[in-house]
Amino acid sequence: GGAPAEEPAAPVAEEPAAPAEEPAAPAEEPAAEEMMEAFKVAIIMPSSITDLAFSQSMFDALLAVQAEMGGEEAMEIVYSEGMFVVDDAAAAIRDYASEGYNLVIAHGSQYGSSLQEIAPDFPETSFAWGTTLNTFSDDGITNVFAYEANSQEGGYVNGVIAASLSEAGVIGVVGPIEAGDASLYVKGFVAGAEATNPDVVVNVNWIGSFSDVALASEAASTHVAAGADVLTGTAQMVVGAIGVAEENGALWFGTQSSQTSLAPDIVVANQVYDWSVVLDEILALIHEGTYGGEAYTITLANGGLVMDYNSGYTLPDDVKALADAAVAGIIDGSIVIPVE
Amino acid sequence: MTPELVIIGILTSGIRLATPYLYAAIGETFGQRSGVLNLGVDGQMLLGAFAGFYVAFTTGSLELGLLAAILVGAVMGLAMAFVTVNLQAEQGISGIGFYLFGLGMSELLFKMLLGTVETVKGFPSLHIPFLGDIPVLGEIFFQHNVMVYGAFLLVPVAWFVLNKTTLGLKIHSVGENPEAADSLGVSVARIRYFTIILGGILSGVAGASLSIALLNVFQQNMTSGLGFIAVALVYFGAWRPWGVLAGALLFSMVNSLQLWMQVLNIPIPTEIAIMLPYILTIVVLVITVSRVRSPSALTKPFDRGE
Amino acid sequence: MTENKLPSGHTRIDTLELRGITKRFPGVLANDNVNFEVRSGEVHALLGENGAGKSTLMKILYGLYDPSDGEVFLNGKKITIESPTDAINHGIGMIHQHFMLVETLTVAENVALGLPSSRGFLTDLDKVSQRILELAEIYGLKIDPDAYIWQLSVGQQQRVEIIKALYRGAALLILDEPTAVLTPQEVDEFFIIMRQMVADGHALIFISHKLHEIMDICDRVTVLRDGAKVGTKNVSDITKSELANWMVGREVIMTRDLDEINRGPSRLTLENLACDSDRGTPALRDVSLKIHSGEILGLAGISGNGQRELAEAITGLREVTKGKVILEDEDITHFAPGKITERMLSYIPEERMRDGMIKNFTIAENMVLREHHISPFAEKGFLMLKTIARHSDDLIDKFGVKTPSRETKAGSLSGGNIQKVVLAREISRKPRVIVAAQPTRGLDVGATEYVHAQLLEQRRDGTAILMISEDLDEIMAISDRIAVICEGEIMGIVPRYEATPEKLGLMMAGVVPEEN
Amino acid sequence: MRSRLDSLLDALLPVFATFAALGVGAIMLFILRVSPVEAYGALWEGAFGSTNAMAETLVKATPLLLVGLGICIAFRASVINIGGEGQMIIGGILATQIGLTFTDWPGWLVIFAAMVAGFLGGALWGGIPGFLKAYFRVNEILSTVMMNAIAVQVMNYMLRGPMIDPAQAEKASKIPQTARLLEAFRLPRWAPTRLHAGFLIAVVLAILVYILLWRTTLGYRIRAVGQNPHAARYGGIRVRRHIVTALLLSGAFAGLAGAIQVYGVNYRMITDGSASGFTGSAGFNGIVAALFGQLHPIGTIPASIFFGALLVGANKMQRVVQIPSALITALNGLVVIFVVSSEIWRRRRQRQRLSRDETDDAPPSIAENINTSKEEGSA
Ligand SMILES: Nc1ncnc2c1ncn2[C@@H]1O[C@H](COP(=O)(O)OP(=O)(O)OP(=O)(O)O)[C@@H](O)[C@H]1O
Ligand SMILES: Nc1ncnc2c1ncn2[C@@H]1O[C@H](COP(=O)(O)OP(=O)(O)OP(=O)(O)O)[C@@H](O)[C@H]1O
Ligand SMILES: [Mg+2]
Ligand SMILES: [Mg+2]
């Protein structure tokens, strides 16, 4: 068949993140000469490091890990942003690898094919990509890590809170295209909302673009006109929708990065991706000489997904309790989110 | 959901969505009427959007923001005029150059000066007394912000300038027969400078209408190709302000219709819904078979032939 | 009214003098140290072969071109003219060879263009219209200020050009081949206007290739040859044939006797032909004609009476709404133009630059425009470049096309040479029928002579020729029979020896001759 | 006789213009506190510094050249095809479908069929605006812009639905991509670089387009229609049909570019919801490349390589000196502006030459929209 065999159920990190000190520890262990060399990380991102969404979530995590490790002397970070052209990204990946970067992160599911091709040529370099769990180990490739986010989990929690807070019983969702991470988040959100209030109406609008801020905003207006008093959305173009929510006094739920700064009055909660959990583990493995083969999922359970509540918004205690219960249920497995 | 609600919704948001298209397309109409095709509208919009946003954000004054957008648009227009009028560069291609420049430069400035997405408090909705209180109509037409009204006001103004003033006469003649205009002492260069700079200004304002009136944020490539649609709408409108208005409204309302179709759970693939405005724009043009020629001198640099 | 004022209220120009004007274009010395003088109250003709540099000299005077060298003196005072605005301010107006009108604007709008308005930035078209009507009254120009230019006949458009100049206070008017596109009647009317203007104290510079017009209306004539001035003479001191010889530098045959008619069977038959104009109004109604092998059928008529549509209907370029076109025995009525071409029907279109040739193609490419797809010029979809080259060299040689090479862009040729290329292409095919529309429009006497000789040679070879012309002299010079068209209908057909200008003129005005 | 120096200067004019643009870029870099020397060193390095770099440049040039060839044809017919992006997408989709369907066919056959499918797909997407222009007078700028947007949605629909990778279909996070092409179906590569046979195909096609335009009756007709539709009709050419043909062919080359991107570079289609995610904006940049190449198929070859080098080198520059990618975009814009603006000097020099040498018939400027050059016409 034309399709490559998909990955087996790769071991997924189950425990919460390793203690923060651990990745920093290598400083003492390796030989002194090696220590002089900074660990070099390159990252290729589809959007920009400041998109308040998917790309920024990884870049922020890298900065956090860098700080943990002791700053630029310990870890050097270079990035290529705006690499939405797969072809250009492939050139960048190969280039970074041949420049001797220790870890090359291709932060987008579209970069898989390129990695599959390039990784075998650089066995000494470690690669990571997401969002997926495919490390290409079936193809005999051993130096690719994979990661993904269970964004449906935070979506579910957001949905629970949203349904509880919606007085109108109508909620609007703005998404880019119905696929990947965005699709997972929306499914989780709808499930959470419907589980909390079976009568709630969740209207979903896919606008067909990751960049059309104006249409995202108009989609939000449409939701408001259709009676929604709570909105959510995913991907970088939703910044336009948040303004509409604020103007109309609707509540907003964010995902990927914290969007509280955009509308401090109406953002209730964000599901924030904290990839440092994954990065820590990858760095530890690389340090041990394992360059790939592991796949990670950030979840509420392992702390990679964090529910970030806006301190400026007072969430009623009963609702907060519902949310906490949802988080607990997801972590202990009593809540299973249907995502097909 | 009642049908009235949906119809009001479609009309209201159609009017809002049409705003940036109107500014940009009316500006482009002036340029094309005088014989200059500007494909750089999207880039000019982005720079205008950024300038407007940044100044409004830092000074807290929306008026100053708007002024900044106007200035930046004017400077871009000036550069474009120099390149197409004096250097007689191929208009379509230099337009693409200006688009790329505006796209990159707006993002670069955004990165250097702001660093992250911020918001401003944009122009508030103006509830027009009396008119805004009329039940349905008031809601559709008279509860928008000032830049929306500005865009719609621009249409009759543009019509008036193009058809009732000596300037309009000159613009028309320069676009149709620059040799004739030149032989009567009309400065082809001066008129084209004027229309291209005006186009730049209106593109800048179109951008600002997004960043400080409708969306109140700036993000890289936030226009997402809107400027190219605006150019297409000039062709749709057959170089007439009222035609452009019709095109902008049609396109926007169908766009808002497709958003409603998704909300109403009409079972068609979302992609088909999203295609609708584009398909319908073409279909309408096919049905209403336009007999109007483009300005004869469009895209042709003027040179006395010496 | 003071001594030096014109009826239009503007100041007179007593003398205007060009001294030592030189103009170089890349590869061409268009004007070579030309001195020229014109006075108030005279019509001064400028005469010369195609490409002699007449238009260039006038464009310099009007500020459209910068001279490479030379000076301009107005009433004895040196002036500089750097733009048309300067020229207009000095009272100089110009009517160009190619009209400078914006077709999509009205007469009044065209006149008002570029002038300050009495209402500031608003147009004052009502006042402009009023003034147009006043001027029209003074000079006897009939014009509707609210008509769009595209609605007007060529003659009317010319009147708009004159009004434009008068409106701007022109005391000196440059008329670059104004009569080339006018009907005899229109020319007469135009001359009345010119005489009126001269009598009022205007100075006129008149360019024309028609010698009788120069004899008719001009006081003095200056001849240019290859950019240089040959001389200036009083028209009263010179005869028409002297003038022709002076200009061309050799003997010119002004009239020729036709050989015996060697008339064969009918080649082209039109039966009750009808078609519409571009605007959708009926242009031809019920036209029936037979054109025989070995004859030239002249079609006379005032421009805009269906001649153009008739030619296009025959050649397949225009949809026929009724009737038939029969080539020998074959009904070709609804054939595509290409198919008609293949049946050896040639067409010399009236607007050659627009319809008859592709400016940016080389001469060689233009030479095969009609047969680029047929053997020997193409085989299996490929162009046979060597054959095409040989063919073009052949024609360039045979027809004496003045060009550096066959690879020269056709657009850079002079009007006469362009005409030769079209003619060479159409005639060299050994056509069975030729439709020739205004074959000598804009050509100098030498070139005209040449074209007529070519057509007559075709006639001798048995080709059937339909020659459409608005120039009665031309029609009467080489047609065997003359048909007259008016408002899309044939008013009658008269043999050449029975035709008089008066008779044809009446028919052109729509009077059906009694004999028919 | 025209000196070699003159033609060399003409050919180098875009290069000088590029230097001027990079000079302005240097000021911007300076403001960003980046050493222009280092930055431009990286640019050169990225474009030509190694075998691999050169290969990357040619890989980038391939779709530019193919789209550019189509633009040459369209422009010669006086049709402006802004629909390259959409045509590439549709071509890519059809070609991919061939590879996914006929998995038991021999590789060469699938590749051939896929190229044909890409060609036809692009032709369809270009032919529709062509048809609408010729028979309904719908302006092609309007319709091609709209067709681009429609093509993106077609792609999103196909990759999310009927064409989705079966492996993705089973998973919760359905990445909108097709399955990968079998190894046997991939265009041969010049290992270890990514340079693939598509470049060769494009160069051969450039020569064929040259022949088409100046050696065949079809080319003659297309050019005639573009130069003067009235005279073309008089010459027996069916104007409308040839307008459609020109846009059809133009689209076909863009469609082929799409197919070659899939079979030579990506081996699958994947969407990020935008056109440029797949095309890398080659549908636009190809227009610029064609104009740099004086709208001449042969001239478009070096022009595409030049532009490809700039794009590839600029990416490298971003990586090395870590400047926002936005600067690169802005810089590309400047290069385009400077290069088209520099045309006027070429035209001026040409006029001066003309006054020296009457028989010269060098090509007029691109500003005059269409030109023909010395080697055109008869031999
Ligand atoms: N803009 C131009 N550029 C280059 N050459 C030109 C230009 N205008 C005229 N010429 C050349 O200058 C010469 C004189 O041209 P001009 O138009 O003055 O002739 P003319 O006497 O008016 O001829 P005609 O009777 O055909 O109108 C010709 O050889 C012509 O080709
Ligand atoms: N680009 C154009 N500019 C002006 N007129 C045009 C143009 N294209 C076509 N036309 C007009 O359209 C009409 C039809 O042209 P033509 O007969 O050449 O088309 P065609 O290719 O034969 O179409 P079909 O194959 O459907 O018969 C003519 O009146 C022609 O003048
Ligand atoms: Mg002349
Ligand atoms: Mg036809």
TrEMBL record, chain B:
One of its GO terms (molecular function) is transmembrane transporter activity. The chain crosses the membrane at residues 6-24, 36-58, 64-85, 97-120, 140-162, 193-215, 272-292. The keyword tRNA-binding does not apply. Keywords: Cell membrane, Membrane, Transmembrane, Transmembrane helix. Pfam families: BPD_transp_2 (PF02653). One of its GO terms (cellular component) is plasma membrane. The keyword Transmembrane applies. It is found in: Cell membrane. It is a multi-pass membrane protein. PANTHER family: ABC TRANSPORTER PERMEASE PROTEIN, SUGAR ABC TRANSPORTER INTEGRAL MEMBRANE PROTEIN-RELATED. This is ABC transporter permease.
TrEMBL record, chain C:
Residues 16-251, 268-512 form the ABC transporter domain. It is a peripheral membrane protein. This is ABC transporter ATP-binding protein. Keywords: ATP-binding, Cell membrane, Membrane, Nucleotide-binding, Repeat, Translocase, Transport. GO terms for molecular function: ATP binding; ATP hydrolysis activity. The keyword Cell wall biogenesis/degradation does not apply. InterPro entries: AAA+_ATPase, ABC_carbohydrate_import_ATPase, ABC_transporter-like_ATP-bd, ABC_transporter-like_CS, P-loop_NTPase. GO terms for cellular component: plasma membrane. It comes from Candidatus Desulfolinea nitratireducens. Its main location: membrane.
UniProtKB/TrEMBL annotation, chain D:
The chain crosses the membrane at residues 12-33, 53-75, 108-128, 140-159, 195-213, 243-263, 323-345. Its main location: membrane. It is a multi-pass membrane protein. The keyword Nucleus does not apply. Residues 350-379 are annotated as: Disordered. InterPro entries: ABC_transp_permease (IPR001851). GO terms for cellular component: plasma membrane. The keyword Disulfide bond does not apply. Keywords: Cell membrane, Membrane, Transmembrane, Transmembrane helix. Pfam families: BPD_transp_2 (PF02653). It comes from the Bacteria. It is found in: Cell membrane. PANTHER family: ABC TRANSPORTER, PERMEASE PROTEIN, GUANOSINE ABC TRANSPORTER PERMEASE PROTEIN NUPP. This is ABC transporter permease. It comes from Candidatus Desulfolinea nitratireducens.
